[in-house]
Prior knowledge:
Elements (H helix, E strand, L loop, with lengths): L2 H17 L9 H8 L3 H16 L11 H5 L13 H6 L8 H11 L7 H12 L1 H13 L2
Helix pairs in contact: 1-3, 1-7
Amino acid sequence: MTIYDKIIWFMLGKAAEVKKFCDIEYFTDADAQAIYKMDKEELEVTWGVVKKWIKHNYGGLTAATCPFCIYYKDYEGIVDCNRCGYGENHGLCDENNSDWAIVQRNFETIIPNALTNEFYKNLVDEIESDDFIDTADEIIEMFK
């Protein structure tokens, strides 16, 4: 499984959880294509940072659990949202009518216990497991 596939599976896991409480397409084919355009080495670093923040008990819908936010941060820690493929596809997160803002409002009011740190830890562990990698590789091959 490539680093691109790991990030996509991570986002698909989040999307499945979001779908339980909000009728928004949180992750789309266009988002996956945006990930495939990212630099492989930078994406490896991004995955490491995602795992680090999750290890330090982050959860929810924050920049710490968003591979796009982490990937597009500059050296001063400021996210360049204007370059973000997710923002291009869903609206920039700070826009009131963006998909992220709609999901965030639902997240805060309807189901505050979704996307917990425990959810993210389990998702990362699953993605990194050998059994999952074998199954995911088979699924990926079916779509090629």
